[in-house]
Amino acid sequence: MLERVVDSVRGIVEDVLDEARRTAEADEGRLDVVADIAAPIPLRVICDMMGVPAEDRAQVLAASNVILSGGDPELIEDQDEPLTALFEAGIALAGIMELLAAERLERPTDDLTTALVTTEVDGERLTHQEIASFFILLLVAGNETTRNAISQGILALSEHPGERARWMADPSIDRTAVEEVVRWTSPITWMRRTATQDGELNGHRFTAGDKFLLFYAAANRDPELFADPHVFDLTRDPNPHVGFGGHGPHFCLGAHLARREIAVAFRQLFEQLPDLEVAGEPARLRSSFVNGLKRLPARLAGVR
C-alpha cells in the first residue's frame, strides 16, 4: 500500500503547490507555509492511502492538531478541560473510521482501510477497537510529523541560504538533504519507553519497570556521533539520526513514505516556487512533545 501511495506523491505535491501559488497571487504574493504547503501535502497523502473522503479531511486535520497540540491554548480553548478536547478529537476520528469501515465491508476498494477491515491473519481479524486505534495513529502520526519536517525545513533553508542554493542546484543530494532536514528539525522531541529488564546504561543502573525519556532532539545533536552537530549540512553522510525513532519494533512505519514526501516537496518547491521567501517570524506550537509550527508567513518574490 505504501509503495502505491509513494507513486502518487508527486502529483499531490504539484497540485498543492499550484494551489499555493494561486493563493499567493490572490493576496499580493503572501501565503502561509504551514496552511498552504506543509499541512496539505501529508494530509492528502495519508487520507488518500486510508480512503478518507474529501469532505472529512478538514475534520481530520483539526482533530490531529488537537491530539498533538501539547495543550497549546490556541488549539485547546478550554484550558480547564484539556483532556476533554483530546477525547473529543479521538472520538471524531473514530467516528470517521466507523462509517468508513462499514462502507468498505460492503464495498471494498484498494485502500488501506479495506485491507484493515477485511484481512485475516491466522483466522483472526482486527477488532473494532484495534482498527479505530490504528486508524487514528496513522492519520495523526502520518500527517503531523511530516508537516512539521517540511515547514521547519523551509525555515531552516531560509536561515541557511547557502545550503538552499546548493540543494536547488544539485538534485543528487536529495537523499542526504532529506536526512539532514529530519535530523535538524526532529519533529518529535521525545518518547517514553519502559525497561523490560534490569541492566546498566552508560554507568547508570536501572531495573525492570523504570521509565525512560528518549530525547530525540538531543540525540540528534550528540557530539559523540555527529561532527559539528549544530551545523546544518545537507551533504552530511553518514547521518545516524533518530528522527524516525530508534532501531527495532518502534521504528517509524511510515519512514519510507515520509522521506519520499519530503524529497518531492522540496524538489518541486525549487522548481514550481523558486521565489518563495520566508517573510516573518514563525508561530511555534507550545508543546514539549511536538516540535511544530502553527504558522510561517512567506511571500512569492515574483508576485505583486
Model description:
With 304 residues, the protein is mostly helical. Helices cover 52% and strands 10% of the residues. It has one domain (2-187, 240-300): Cytochrome P450 (Cytochrome p450, Orthogonal Bundle). The chain is built from eleven helices and nine strands. The strands form four sheets. Strands 1-9-6 form a three-stranded antiparallel beta sheet. A two-stranded antiparallel ribbon has the order 2-5. Belongs to the cytochrome P450 family. Pfam families: p450 (PF00067). This is Cytochrome P450.
| Total domains | 1
* Share of helical residues: 40-55%
Class based on secondary structure composition and strand pairing: mainly alpha
User: What's the CATH topology label?
Assistant: Cytochrome p450
Gross geometry: globular
Strand order of the largest sheet: 1-9-6
Number of helices: 11
CATH architecture descriptor? Orthogonal Bundle
Work out the strand percent: 5-15%
Multimerization state: single chain
List the helices and strands and how they pair.
Blueprint (H helix, E strand, L loop, with lengths): L1 H24 L4 E3 H6 L1 H11 L6 H11 L14 H25 L5 H7 L9 H32 L1 H9 L4 H12 L4 E5 L4 E3 L2 E3 L4 E5 H4 L35 H18 L3 E3 L4 E2 L8 E3 L1 E4 L4
Antiparallel strand pairs: 1-9, 2-5, 3-4, 6-9, 7-8
Helix pairs in contact: 1-3, 1-11, 3-7, 4-5, 4-7, 5-6, 5-7, 7-9, 7-11, 9-11
